[in-house]
Amino acid sequence: PTVKPPHYLDELNEVQRQAVTTTDGPVLVIAGPGSGKTRVLTYRIAHLIEQGSAPWEILALTFTNKAAREMKDRIAKVVGPRASNIWAGTFHSLFARILRVEANHIGYPSNFTIYDTDDTKSLLGQIIRELSLDPKVYQANAIKNRISSAKSNLITPKSYALNEELLAQDKQAKMPLVSQIYTKYVERCKRAGAMDFDDLLFRLYELLQNHPEVVKKYRQKFRYVLVDEFQDTNTLQYAIVKRLVQYEGSPRNICVVGDDAQSIYAFRGATIQNILDFENDFSQYGIQTFKLEQNYRSTETIVATANAVIGHNSRQIQKKIWSDKGHGEKIRVIREMDDNLEGRRVADTILEQKNRFHLQNQDIAILYRTNAQSRIFEEYLRRFNIAYRVYGGLSFYQRKEVKDLIAYLRLVVNPNDEEAFRRVINFPKRGIGDTSVGKVISLAGQQSMSLFDALRHVALPTRARHAADGFIDVIEKAQRKSATASAYELAEAIARRSGLLDFYRNDNSIEGMGRLENFQALLDGIKSFVEEDSVSDTENLPDKSLATYLQNIALLTDFDTEGDESKDVVTLMSVHAAKGLEFKSVFVVGLEEKLFPSWMSMDSAEGMDEERRLFYVAITRAELFLTLSYANTRYRYGKMTMNEPSRFLAEVPAEAVESTSYSRRSNDHEFDPLAQQRARVTGVVPPARLRGTAKFAEPRVDMENFQPSPSEEIVAGVRVLHQKFGEGKVTKVDGGAGNQIATIHFSDLAQPEKRIMLKFAKLQVL
Ligand code: ATP
Ligand code: MG
After folding, report:
1. What is the rounded distance in angstroms from the CA atom of residue 239 to the CA atom of residue 201?
2. Residue 597, preceding bond cis, omega within 30 degrees?
3. Is the C-beta atom of 34 inside 6 A of ligand 1?
4. CA torsion through residues 170, 175, 179, 183, sign
5. Pseudo-torsion of CA 298, 304, 305, 309, nearest 10°?
6. CDD domains given for it (predicted)?
7. Does the C-beta of 16 come closer than 6 Å to ligand 1?
8. Which of 53, 515, 656, 692 lies 20 to 30 angstroms, CA to CA, from 721?
9. DSSP letter, residue 466
């Protein structure tokens, strides 16, 4: 009798199933977008656990924390709550977790702080001042990049100082002393018990390299290692993975999935070479390679477009990709006179799609090349009352009031944290000036004592002495309490006793009130961290310490958002951030030469190829609807610029683009700028016509039930549905043609009577 396979294997096609069930030895999955690579990884983990592996034997490296969370949630549906014990997360967060346990081997405390980019720049600025160098020549940002790339290439300060090539480059850049700054920077981080993002990789590599007993421990522990988005790993990440899986001569079970055509992080040192190396490195151990060819995400039109676009790149691993979802809608191209109109038009199209296809906000994404482009779209979405969320840019945790409280918390965990110390020693103001702070830091350095000991011993005027003692007391009390109190209780006590809460409470300006709200939101966030039960340790003890909380937020990527993910909002993000995601409707905006492709990449063939892969990633996020837009002119860097349409638009096959028979509205507007302007001036916008040809394997949108309502139908007595106000009854219509105003009674509103311009309103007759 045949045994019925476990149910989850039914949700995979034949090749996917093979990739999932080939659990022993090295496995490589190279496949195009939407072909189920991430699904294979997810189901593979579920399968391993179902077959008896312990969750903590599994190490799964993902691109964002959010991706790891989603993976665990999906796995939990198969194997239950055990899923939370899988080691799934980003390289940085999982490596930080290992480093905490092993810190003593490399001369770090286990409570080390993670310096973010601002901390790094601030410390570099400080060192530049101390060395009396000109900060205009020695720019912290440029130096940060130099140091970062040195670390990624495993170059220590010592080897940097001996590296003729690097020294020559520095000289040429008129910064001959970078090597010295690097040395000092590393010393200072070490003294502060702090690691920056690069250190989390660099130090782990060193640890695994120099401590055979440690590497052995983790090789034994992680019986299964999996990597998603392998095409975007850098050399160092791959080197670490390789060290982790070499076990007594033969490698552990490793499975990596990726797509060379979607490699978009070369600027951060990622290299497709890793895929080629992987095949070589593991060939002697019987590597098995799987190619997935069916795209389950997108319509045939979108897949064909993607194939045509990427065909313009010269070098790539050959892959076939096909879809059986039917042709679906054609691709819409929007052209506008300027960036403002582009924003308006996109928001307008979103409303239209929501109506016609019954999409929810969360089905829709606007993707751009640079974060700065979000502003105009935000403005129009707000105006049109469409809820949205912007990813990237200034995150919640980068706000001043949030960073202030976090700095106090960091000091509780690690009193040597120099950047946190500098941030709050005199905030709220307590009369300890810069000179005193400078004295403390140099005393700590000279005597190699902690910052707090230095603060105790340094000579200060009476008032400052008193304030310093008070500050020490606040931190030390919290440290004593930290053994028994929860992270939330500690944070709450610090907020009060530091004077921060009062400081923000007493600020009655509008901004001040906003800050107080953020401050409060941070406390709420810590509370929910303490209460939620998902985070657990290998030993199955939930780790709710303040240290863990701080690490979690320090390692949020730009693409993880804090707070409620479940809201129904339109997503605004850079194309880089959209990797791995999918939406029913995708808008790729700002398709102009020098913007997308970016001017920074246009002077080299490799740069152009990378931009094209980026465009490829963008369009392959779409399931059903793809809209491409550009503007003839736009403000950039404070100047009006005029750009040609992006060359990528010309690479979209003509037959995939919406033809003139589709909707007069897009036709008139898009290809005839005069008609566009005419329409704007007169306000006469022909209603969109429906096309009944879309065919999907599984119809996900209800295209039958929507009736557009030409304005002739809107007369007194008719019941209508308004986007924002809900259901209402028309009581009167007045005004001339093109300028008609309806008076409508919306019974759900406090002020039910609204006068609405018909040409702007999105009304549906009921
Ligand atoms: P990307 O390269 O963009 O990361 P991917 O290869 O990781 O894409 P997934 O995100 O895993 O692709 O899958 C794309 C979509 O197709 C998802 O919605 C997934 O649930 C669905 N899918 C994958 N395989 C199957 C299948 N065998 N049957 C039904 N749906 C599938
Ligand atoms: Mg994926």
Report:
1. 10
2. yes
3. yes
4. negative
5. 120
6. DEXQc_UvrD, SF1_C_UvrD
7. yes
8. 692
9. H
Q: 560 to each of 201, 390, 396, 424, how far by Cα in Å?
A: 20, 11, 11, 27
CA distance 237 to 632: 42
Q: 255 forms bridges with which residues in the sheet? A: 27, 226
Question: Has the ipTM of the complex gone over 0.90?
Answer: yes
Helix pair 197-210, 140-152: axis angle to 10 deg: 30
Q: Which ligand is nearest to the CA of 581?
A: 1
By alpha-carbon position, which residue is closest to atom 21 of ligand 1? 296
Placement of tokens 């989390």 in the chain: 200
Report d(CA 146, CA 149) in Å as an integer. 5
Q: 461 labelled as ligand-binding? A: no
Atom of ligand 1 nearest to the CA of 229: 4
Q: Which two tokens stand for residue 18?
A: 């093979």
Distance CA 334, CA 494 (A): 53
The token duo for 384 is: 């049109």
Residue 653 CB neighbours (<10 A): 13
| pLDDT one-digit tens code per residue, 158-167 | 999 999 999 9
Name the residue type at position 623.
Answer: E
Active site residues per annotation? 37-38, 228-229, 262, 621
What are the tokens at 611? 């931009």
- The CA 273 to ligand 1 mean position distance, Å, reads 25
Helix axes 487-497, 462-481, angle to 10 degrees: 160
- pLDDT tens readout for residues 72-91: 999 999 999 999 999 999 99
Annotated binding residue 37? yes
CB 115 within 8 A of CB 99: no
Residue 90 CA to ligand 1 center (angstroms) comes to 20
Report which ligand 1 atom has the smallest distance to the Cα of 33.
Answer: 2
What residue type is assigned to position 680 of the chain?
Answer: R
**Are 183 and 161 contacting, i.e. CB atoms less than 8 angstroms apart?**
yes
38 close to 29: Cβ distance less than 8 angstroms = no
Bridge partners of residue 370, in order along the sequence? none
pLDDT at 259: 95
321 within 8 A of 307, measured Cβ to Cβ: yes
Q: Let me know the angle formed at the C-alpha of 468 by 465 and 470, rounded to the nearest 5 degrees.
A: 115
333: number of CA atoms within 13 Å, CB side? 23
Q: How far apart (Å, rounded) are the C-alpha atoms in residues 223 and 220? A: 7
Pocket probe for ligand 1: among 74, 293, 297, the residue whose CB has the most ligand atoms within 8 Å is 297
Contact assessment for residue 437 and residue 422, using Cβ atoms and an 8 Å cutoff: yes
- Number of the ligand 1 atom closest to the C-alpha atom of 35: 6
Read off the tokens for 702. 């209800």
Q: In what order do the strands lie in the sheet with 58-62?
A: 87-90, 58-62, 224-227, 253-258, 27-30, 288-290
Side-chain-side CA neighbours of 703 within 13 Å: the count stands at 17
What's the predicted TM-score (pTM) here?
Answer: 0.79
The two counts, helices (H) then strands (E), for the chain are 29, 22
d(CA 262, CA 620): 10
Those residues whose C-beta lies under 8 Å from the C-beta of residue 756, and which sit 6 or more positions away, are 722, 741, 742, 743, 744, 763
> Where are the extended beta strands (E) located within 14-95?
27-30, 58-62, 87-90
Report which of 648, 600, 601 is spatially closest to residue 628, judged by C-alpha positions.
Answer: 648
Q: Would you state the structure tokens that stand for residue 74, as one six-digit string?
A: 């999906």
Closest CA to 424 of 437, 435, 413, 414: 437
Whole-angstrom distance, CA of residue 165 vs CA of residue 175: 14
Max alpha carbon distance in the chain (Å)?
Answer: 89
328 lines ligand 1 (CB under 6 A): no
Average pLDDT, the chain: 86
Closest CA to 627 of 649, 612, 605, 602: 649
Model confidence over 346-389: pLDDT tens digits? 999 999 999 999 999 999 999 999 988 998 999 999 999 999 99
- Does the pLDDT of residue 413 top 70, yes or no? yes
